[in-house]
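Sample entry (401 residues):
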Amino acid sequence: MTHGLVAGATSVLHPVDRAAFVTGLGATLRRRGLPVSLAALGTFARALEAAPPRDVGTLYWSARLTLVTRHDDLAAFDDVFDAVFRDAALPLEGRRRAPAGAGSPTDRLASVRGVDGPEVDGEGLPWHTLPPVVAPADTADEGQLVPERLPSAVAGLRDTPFDELDEAQLALVGAWLEGVLPRWPTRPSRRRRPHPRGDRVALRETLAASRRTGWEPVVLVRTRPVRRPRPVVVIADVSQSMQPYATAYLHLLRALALGGRAEAFVFSTRLTRVTAALRHRSAAEAVTGATRLVDDRYGGTHLAASLRALLRSRHGHALRGAVVVIASDGCDADPPQALAQVMRSVHRRAHRVVWVNPRAGVPGYEPLVGSMAAALPWCDTFLPGDTLSGLQAVIHAIVTP
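Predicted structure, serialized as C-alpha coordinates:
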Protein backbone atom coordinates (compact mmCIF):
# COMPACT_ATOMS: atom_id res chain seq x y z
CA MET A 1 0.00 0.00 0.00
CA THR A 2 1.26 3.45 -0.83
CA HIS A 3 1.84 5.74 2.16
CA GLY A 4 1.91 9.50 2.40
CA LEU A 5 -0.42 12.46 2.40
CA VAL A 6 -3.06 12.96 -0.19
CA ALA A 7 -1.46 15.26 -2.73
CA GLY A 8 -2.97 18.40 -4.05
CA ALA A 9 -4.02 21.44 -2.16
CA THR A 10 -7.58 21.22 -3.56
CA SER A 11 -8.17 17.64 -2.48
CA VAL A 12 -10.89 17.05 0.10
CA LEU A 13 -8.46 14.75 1.92
CA HIS A 14 -5.62 17.28 2.19
CA PRO A 15 -3.75 16.87 4.46
CA VAL A 16 -4.82 13.28 5.40
CA ASP A 17 -2.59 10.26 5.85
CA ARG A 18 -3.63 8.13 2.90
CA ALA A 19 -2.71 4.75 4.43
CA ALA A 20 -4.58 5.47 7.66
CA PHE A 21 -7.58 6.77 5.78
CA VAL A 22 -7.77 3.76 3.46
CA THR A 23 -7.26 1.28 6.31
CA GLY A 24 -9.93 2.93 8.46
CA LEU A 25 -12.48 3.01 5.66
CA GLY A 26 -11.77 -0.63 4.84
CA ALA A 27 -12.26 -1.66 8.47
CA THR A 28 -15.57 0.22 8.61
CA LEU A 29 -16.80 -1.49 5.46
CA ARG A 30 -15.76 -4.91 6.75
CA ARG A 31 -17.74 -4.36 9.94
CA ARG A 32 -20.80 -3.87 7.73
CA GLY A 33 -20.11 -7.17 6.05
CA LEU A 34 -18.43 -6.07 2.83
CA PRO A 35 -15.61 -8.43 1.66
CA VAL A 36 -12.92 -5.76 1.21
CA SER A 37 -9.60 -7.39 0.36
CA LEU A 38 -6.09 -5.99 0.85
CA ALA A 39 -5.68 -5.84 -2.92
CA ALA A 40 -8.76 -3.64 -3.16
CA LEU A 41 -7.43 -1.33 -0.47
CA GLY A 42 -4.14 -1.04 -2.35
CA THR A 43 -5.99 -0.18 -5.53
CA PHE A 44 -8.00 2.45 -3.67
CA ALA A 45 -4.82 3.97 -2.24
CA ARG A 46 -3.20 4.14 -5.69
CA ALA A 47 -6.36 5.74 -7.07
CA LEU A 48 -6.20 8.46 -4.40
CA GLU A 49 -2.59 9.07 -5.29
CA ALA A 50 -3.15 9.19 -9.04
CA ALA A 51 -6.35 11.26 -8.91
CA PRO A 52 -6.84 13.14 -5.63
CA PRO A 53 -10.61 13.61 -5.07
CA ARG A 54 -11.71 17.20 -5.39
CA ASP A 55 -15.15 16.65 -3.84
CA VAL A 56 -17.20 14.03 -2.05
CA GLY A 57 -18.70 12.75 -5.29
CA THR A 58 -15.27 12.01 -6.79
CA LEU A 59 -14.21 10.30 -3.59
CA TYR A 60 -17.40 8.24 -3.64
CA TRP A 61 -16.72 6.88 -7.13
CA SER A 62 -13.05 6.21 -6.37
CA ALA A 63 -14.03 4.12 -3.35
CA ARG A 64 -16.99 2.44 -5.04
CA LEU A 65 -15.06 1.37 -8.13
CA THR A 66 -12.17 -0.08 -6.17
CA LEU A 67 -13.71 -1.50 -3.00
CA VAL A 68 -17.07 -2.92 -4.13
CA THR A 69 -17.15 -5.93 -6.43
CA ARG A 70 -20.66 -7.27 -5.88
CA HIS A 71 -23.92 -5.63 -6.76
CA ASP A 72 -25.49 -6.86 -3.52
CA ASP A 73 -22.98 -4.81 -1.47
CA LEU A 74 -23.96 -1.45 -2.99
CA ALA A 75 -26.61 -0.61 -0.40
CA ALA A 76 -24.30 -1.29 2.55
CA PHE A 77 -21.49 0.70 0.92
CA ASP A 78 -23.76 3.69 0.33
CA ASP A 79 -24.94 3.59 3.95
CA VAL A 80 -21.37 3.59 5.26
CA PHE A 81 -20.23 6.33 2.89
CA ASP A 82 -23.19 8.56 3.69
CA ALA A 83 -22.73 8.02 7.43
CA VAL A 84 -19.03 8.90 7.27
CA PHE A 85 -18.79 11.60 4.61
CA ARG A 86 -22.24 13.04 3.86
CA ASP A 87 -24.08 13.09 7.17
CA ALA A 88 -21.69 15.58 8.81
CA ALA A 89 -19.79 12.87 10.66
CA LEU A 90 -16.71 13.89 8.68
CA PRO A 91 -17.30 17.05 6.58
CA LEU A 92 -14.46 16.51 4.18
CA GLU A 93 -15.14 19.42 1.92
CA GLY A 94 -14.93 21.70 4.94
CA ARG A 95 -11.30 20.62 5.24
CA ARG A 96 -10.50 21.93 1.79
CA ARG A 97 -7.92 24.66 2.03
CA ALA A 98 -9.59 27.95 1.47
CA PRO A 99 -8.06 30.51 -0.80
CA ALA A 100 -5.77 33.02 0.86
CA GLY A 101 -7.71 35.80 2.57
CA ALA A 102 -11.11 34.20 2.07
CA GLY A 103 -13.28 34.09 5.22
CA SER A 104 -12.47 33.29 8.82
CA PRO A 105 -10.76 30.09 10.12
CA THR A 106 -14.13 28.79 11.42
CA ASP A 107 -15.39 28.55 7.84
CA ARG A 108 -13.33 25.37 7.37
CA LEU A 109 -15.64 23.59 9.84
CA ALA A 110 -18.82 24.40 7.95
CA SER A 111 -20.83 21.34 6.97
CA VAL A 112 -21.06 20.34 3.35
CA ARG A 113 -24.35 19.74 1.69
CA GLY A 114 -24.72 16.28 0.26
CA VAL A 115 -25.95 15.26 -3.14
CA ASP A 116 -29.71 15.70 -3.36
CA GLY A 117 -32.26 14.66 -5.91
CA PRO A 118 -33.07 11.36 -7.58
CA GLU A 119 -30.35 9.48 -9.36
CA VAL A 120 -30.62 9.56 -13.14
CA ASP A 121 -29.51 6.63 -15.22
CA GLY A 122 -26.49 7.32 -17.41
CA GLU A 123 -25.00 9.99 -15.17
CA GLY A 124 -21.82 9.75 -13.23
CA LEU A 125 -18.91 7.39 -13.71
CA PRO A 126 -19.42 4.03 -15.40
CA TRP A 127 -20.17 1.17 -13.06
CA HIS A 128 -17.99 -1.90 -13.45
CA THR A 129 -19.71 -4.29 -11.06
CA LEU A 130 -21.08 -7.34 -12.82
CA PRO A 131 -24.83 -7.29 -13.38
CA PRO A 132 -26.96 -9.48 -11.15
CA VAL A 133 -27.17 -13.10 -12.27
CA VAL A 134 -30.09 -14.12 -10.08
CA ALA A 135 -33.67 -14.21 -11.20
CA PRO A 136 -35.64 -10.95 -11.26
CA ALA A 137 -37.65 -9.90 -8.26
CA ASP A 138 -40.94 -11.29 -9.53
CA THR A 139 -39.49 -14.82 -9.71
CA ALA A 140 -37.25 -14.61 -6.64
CA ASP A 141 -39.67 -16.66 -4.58
CA GLU A 142 -39.27 -19.61 -6.93
CA GLY A 143 -35.65 -20.13 -5.91
CA GLN A 144 -32.50 -20.04 -8.01
CA LEU A 145 -33.03 -21.19 -11.56
CA VAL A 146 -30.59 -23.77 -12.88
CA PRO A 147 -30.39 -24.25 -16.66
CA GLU A 148 -31.20 -27.73 -17.77
CA ARG A 149 -29.16 -29.52 -20.44
CA LEU A 150 -31.18 -30.61 -23.40
CA PRO A 151 -30.90 -34.28 -24.29
CA SER A 152 -29.15 -35.36 -27.44
CA ALA A 153 -31.12 -36.52 -30.43
CA VAL A 154 -30.57 -40.19 -29.50
CA ALA A 155 -31.23 -39.67 -25.79
CA GLY A 156 -34.57 -38.12 -26.67
CA LEU A 157 -35.56 -41.39 -28.36
CA ARG A 158 -34.48 -43.51 -25.42
CA ASP A 159 -37.94 -44.61 -24.29
CA THR A 160 -39.87 -44.09 -27.52
CA PRO A 161 -41.28 -47.34 -28.95
CA PHE A 162 -39.80 -48.31 -32.29
CA ASP A 163 -43.21 -48.40 -33.95
CA GLU A 164 -43.49 -44.62 -33.35
CA LEU A 165 -40.16 -43.71 -35.00
CA ASP A 166 -39.76 -42.59 -38.59
CA GLU A 167 -36.98 -43.70 -40.96
CA ALA A 168 -34.62 -40.85 -40.01
CA GLN A 169 -34.98 -41.61 -36.30
CA LEU A 170 -34.42 -45.32 -36.92
CA ALA A 171 -31.26 -44.46 -38.87
CA LEU A 172 -30.13 -42.40 -35.87
CA VAL A 173 -30.71 -45.39 -33.61
CA GLY A 174 -28.68 -47.55 -36.00
CA ALA A 175 -25.77 -45.12 -36.00
CA TRP A 176 -25.81 -45.12 -32.20
CA LEU A 177 -25.85 -48.92 -32.07
CA GLU A 178 -22.74 -49.11 -34.27
CA GLY A 179 -20.65 -47.30 -31.70
CA VAL A 180 -22.18 -48.48 -28.43
CA LEU A 181 -20.85 -52.06 -28.37
CA PRO A 182 -18.50 -51.88 -25.34
CA ARG A 183 -16.71 -55.22 -25.65
CA TRP A 184 -17.22 -58.70 -26.97
CA PRO A 185 -17.87 -61.85 -24.91
CA THR A 186 -14.94 -64.24 -24.68
CA ARG A 187 -14.44 -67.89 -23.78
CA PRO A 188 -11.36 -69.80 -22.61
CA SER A 189 -9.44 -71.87 -25.15
CA ARG A 190 -7.12 -74.88 -24.73
CA ARG A 191 -4.04 -72.76 -25.25
CA ARG A 192 -2.44 -71.33 -22.14
CA ARG A 193 -0.27 -68.26 -21.66
CA PRO A 194 2.06 -67.26 -18.79
CA HIS A 195 0.38 -64.92 -16.39
CA PRO A 196 1.34 -63.82 -12.84
CA ARG A 197 -2.16 -64.76 -11.57
CA GLY A 198 -2.44 -68.01 -13.49
CA ASP A 199 -4.14 -71.04 -11.93
CA ARG A 200 -1.58 -73.65 -13.06
CA VAL A 201 2.21 -73.93 -12.73
CA ALA A 202 3.99 -74.44 -16.09
CA LEU A 203 6.67 -77.09 -15.46
CA ARG A 204 8.73 -76.46 -18.59
CA GLU A 205 8.83 -72.68 -18.15
CA THR A 206 9.59 -73.02 -14.42
CA LEU A 207 12.59 -75.30 -15.09
CA ALA A 208 13.85 -72.95 -17.78
CA ALA A 209 13.67 -70.03 -15.34
CA SER A 210 15.61 -72.02 -12.69
CA ARG A 211 18.77 -71.80 -14.82
CA ARG A 212 19.22 -68.25 -13.52
CA THR A 213 19.03 -69.42 -9.87
CA GLY A 214 21.42 -72.43 -9.92
CA TRP A 215 18.71 -74.85 -11.04
CA GLU A 216 16.63 -74.08 -7.97
CA PRO A 217 12.95 -73.40 -8.90
CA VAL A 218 12.71 -70.15 -6.97
CA VAL A 219 10.30 -68.54 -9.42
CA LEU A 220 7.13 -70.46 -10.34
CA VAL A 221 5.83 -69.62 -13.81
CA ARG A 222 2.04 -69.73 -13.83
CA THR A 223 -0.28 -69.89 -16.82
CA ARG A 224 -3.92 -69.34 -17.54
CA PRO A 225 -6.11 -70.11 -20.59
CA VAL A 226 -6.07 -67.77 -23.55
CA ARG A 227 -9.53 -66.25 -24.07
CA ARG A 228 -10.96 -66.01 -27.55
CA PRO A 229 -14.02 -64.18 -28.85
CA ARG A 230 -17.20 -66.12 -28.22
CA PRO A 231 -19.43 -66.63 -31.27
CA VAL A 232 -22.73 -64.78 -31.34
CA VAL A 233 -25.71 -65.82 -33.50
CA VAL A 234 -28.62 -63.39 -33.89
CA ILE A 235 -31.97 -64.48 -35.36
CA ALA A 236 -34.66 -61.84 -35.99
CA ASP A 237 -38.31 -62.31 -36.80
CA VAL A 238 -39.47 -60.22 -39.81
CA SER A 239 -43.00 -61.63 -40.09
CA GLN A 240 -46.16 -59.54 -40.30
CA SER A 241 -46.55 -59.15 -36.55
CA MET A 242 -42.92 -57.92 -36.21
CA GLN A 243 -43.02 -55.38 -39.06
CA PRO A 244 -42.91 -52.25 -36.79
CA TYR A 245 -39.68 -53.51 -35.20
CA ALA A 246 -37.98 -55.14 -38.21
CA THR A 247 -35.84 -52.13 -39.21
CA ALA A 248 -34.61 -51.50 -35.67
CA TYR A 249 -33.63 -55.15 -35.29
CA LEU A 250 -31.81 -55.08 -38.62
CA HIS A 251 -29.74 -52.19 -37.28
CA LEU A 252 -29.00 -54.26 -34.16
CA LEU A 253 -27.96 -57.22 -36.31
CA ARG A 254 -25.72 -54.96 -38.39
CA ALA A 255 -24.03 -53.49 -35.31
CA LEU A 256 -23.27 -56.99 -34.00
CA ALA A 257 -22.11 -58.23 -37.40
CA LEU A 258 -19.73 -55.28 -37.79
CA GLY A 259 -18.47 -55.06 -34.22
CA GLY A 260 -17.92 -58.73 -33.41
CA ARG A 261 -18.43 -60.71 -36.61
CA ALA A 262 -21.70 -62.19 -35.41
CA GLU A 263 -23.77 -64.44 -37.67
CA ALA A 264 -27.10 -62.79 -38.51
CA PHE A 265 -30.28 -64.52 -39.73
CA VAL A 266 -33.87 -63.41 -40.31
CA PHE A 267 -36.96 -65.51 -40.83
CA SER A 268 -40.60 -65.29 -41.64
CA THR A 269 -41.64 -68.55 -43.26
CA ARG A 270 -38.05 -69.67 -43.85
CA LEU A 271 -34.57 -68.84 -42.67
CA THR A 272 -32.33 -66.35 -44.56
CA ARG A 273 -28.71 -65.52 -43.76
CA VAL A 274 -28.07 -61.76 -44.02
CA THR A 275 -24.60 -61.46 -42.46
CA ALA A 276 -22.77 -60.45 -45.64
CA ALA A 277 -25.45 -57.95 -46.68
CA LEU A 278 -25.45 -56.24 -43.28
CA ARG A 279 -21.68 -55.72 -43.32
CA HIS A 280 -21.99 -53.06 -46.02
CA ARG A 281 -20.33 -49.85 -44.85
CA SER A 282 -23.46 -47.84 -45.61
CA ALA A 283 -26.19 -48.50 -43.05
CA ALA A 284 -28.97 -47.60 -45.49
CA GLU A 285 -27.53 -49.86 -48.18
CA ALA A 286 -27.05 -52.65 -45.65
CA VAL A 287 -30.67 -52.55 -44.47
CA THR A 288 -31.95 -52.28 -48.03
CA GLY A 289 -29.78 -55.17 -49.19
CA ALA A 290 -30.84 -57.40 -46.30
CA THR A 291 -34.50 -56.57 -46.87
CA ARG A 292 -34.13 -57.38 -50.55
CA LEU A 293 -32.84 -60.86 -49.72
CA VAL A 294 -35.94 -61.74 -47.67
CA ASP A 295 -38.67 -62.15 -50.25
CA ASP A 296 -41.05 -63.69 -47.68
CA ARG A 297 -40.80 -60.78 -45.22
CA TYR A 298 -43.91 -59.54 -43.47
CA GLY A 299 -45.63 -62.85 -44.15
CA GLY A 300 -46.48 -65.76 -41.87
CA THR A 301 -44.29 -67.16 -39.11
CA HIS A 302 -42.66 -70.58 -38.91
CA LEU A 303 -40.36 -70.14 -35.99
CA ALA A 304 -39.81 -73.80 -35.12
CA ALA A 305 -39.14 -74.76 -38.75
CA SER A 306 -36.68 -71.88 -39.20
CA LEU A 307 -34.71 -72.81 -36.08
CA ARG A 308 -34.64 -76.44 -37.15
CA ALA A 309 -33.33 -75.38 -40.55
CA LEU A 310 -30.55 -73.44 -38.84
CA LEU A 311 -29.54 -76.44 -36.75
CA ARG A 312 -29.36 -78.66 -39.82
CA SER A 313 -27.56 -76.15 -42.06
CA ARG A 314 -23.81 -75.74 -42.46
CA HIS A 315 -24.08 -72.78 -40.08
CA GLY A 316 -25.42 -74.96 -37.31
CA HIS A 317 -21.94 -75.40 -35.83
CA ALA A 318 -21.85 -71.65 -35.18
CA LEU A 319 -24.30 -72.23 -32.32
CA ARG A 320 -21.85 -74.35 -30.33
CA GLY A 321 -20.73 -72.36 -27.31
CA ALA A 322 -22.35 -69.25 -28.76
CA VAL A 323 -24.62 -66.58 -27.35
CA VAL A 324 -27.84 -67.10 -29.32
CA VAL A 325 -30.16 -64.09 -29.52
CA ILE A 326 -33.71 -64.66 -30.81
CA ALA A 327 -35.78 -61.53 -31.47
CA SER A 328 -39.42 -62.51 -31.89
CA ASP A 329 -42.82 -61.93 -30.34
CA GLY A 330 -43.32 -65.71 -30.08
CA CYS A 331 -46.27 -65.90 -32.49
CA ASP A 332 -45.68 -69.15 -34.39
CA ALA A 333 -47.80 -71.07 -36.86
CA ASP A 334 -46.00 -74.29 -35.90
CA PRO A 335 -47.21 -76.34 -32.90
CA PRO A 336 -45.79 -75.20 -29.55
CA GLN A 337 -44.46 -78.70 -28.98
CA ALA A 338 -42.30 -78.39 -32.09
CA LEU A 339 -40.88 -75.09 -30.88
CA ALA A 340 -40.15 -76.53 -27.44
CA GLN A 341 -38.29 -79.44 -29.02
CA VAL A 342 -36.11 -77.32 -31.26
CA MET A 343 -35.45 -74.80 -28.48
CA ARG A 344 -34.18 -77.63 -26.30
CA SER A 345 -31.68 -78.51 -29.03
CA VAL A 346 -30.62 -74.87 -29.39
CA HIS A 347 -30.16 -74.54 -25.63
CA ARG A 348 -27.99 -77.68 -25.47
CA ARG A 349 -25.75 -76.43 -28.25
CA ALA A 350 -25.48 -72.77 -27.19
CA HIS A 351 -23.69 -71.21 -24.27
CA ARG A 352 -26.61 -68.92 -23.46
CA VAL A 353 -29.97 -68.16 -25.11
CA VAL A 354 -31.31 -64.60 -24.97
CA TRP A 355 -34.90 -64.06 -26.11
CA VAL A 356 -35.94 -60.50 -27.04
CA ASN A 357 -39.69 -59.91 -27.23
CA PRO A 358 -40.84 -56.37 -28.13
CA ARG A 359 -44.28 -57.04 -26.69
CA ALA A 360 -42.79 -57.76 -23.29
CA GLY A 361 -42.45 -54.02 -22.76
CA VAL A 362 -46.23 -53.62 -22.53
CA PRO A 363 -47.35 -53.33 -18.90
CA GLY A 364 -49.06 -56.47 -17.70
CA TYR A 365 -47.55 -58.74 -20.34
CA GLU A 366 -46.92 -62.33 -19.26
CA PRO A 367 -45.43 -64.93 -21.64
CA LEU A 368 -47.83 -67.66 -20.63
CA VAL A 369 -49.67 -68.47 -23.86
CA GLY A 370 -48.78 -70.51 -26.95
CA SER A 371 -45.32 -70.87 -28.42
CA MET A 372 -43.77 -68.23 -26.20
CA ALA A 373 -44.68 -70.23 -23.11
CA ALA A 374 -43.27 -73.37 -24.74
CA ALA A 375 -39.94 -71.71 -25.57
CA LEU A 376 -39.44 -69.80 -22.34
CA PRO A 377 -38.07 -72.72 -20.23
CA TRP A 378 -35.16 -72.99 -22.68
CA CYS A 379 -34.22 -69.33 -22.49
CA ASP A 380 -31.55 -68.07 -20.10
CA THR A 381 -32.57 -64.42 -20.43
CA PHE A 382 -35.90 -62.89 -21.44
CA LEU A 383 -35.91 -59.16 -22.24
CA PRO A 384 -38.21 -56.58 -23.84
CA GLY A 385 -36.83 -54.90 -26.95
CA ASP A 386 -39.32 -52.28 -28.08
CA THR A 387 -37.21 -49.22 -27.20
CA LEU A 388 -33.61 -48.06 -27.27
CA SER A 389 -33.36 -48.68 -23.53
CA GLY A 390 -34.46 -52.26 -24.14
CA LEU A 391 -31.75 -52.76 -26.76
CA GLN A 392 -29.16 -51.43 -24.32
CA ALA A 393 -30.16 -54.18 -21.90
CA VAL A 394 -29.95 -56.72 -24.73
CA ILE A 395 -26.41 -55.62 -25.62
CA HIS A 396 -25.41 -55.83 -21.96
CA ALA A 397 -26.80 -59.38 -21.77
CA ILE A 398 -24.83 -60.35 -24.90
CA VAL A 399 -21.44 -59.07 -23.76
CA THR A 400 -21.78 -60.36 -20.20
CA PRO A 401 -19.50 -63.43 -19.82
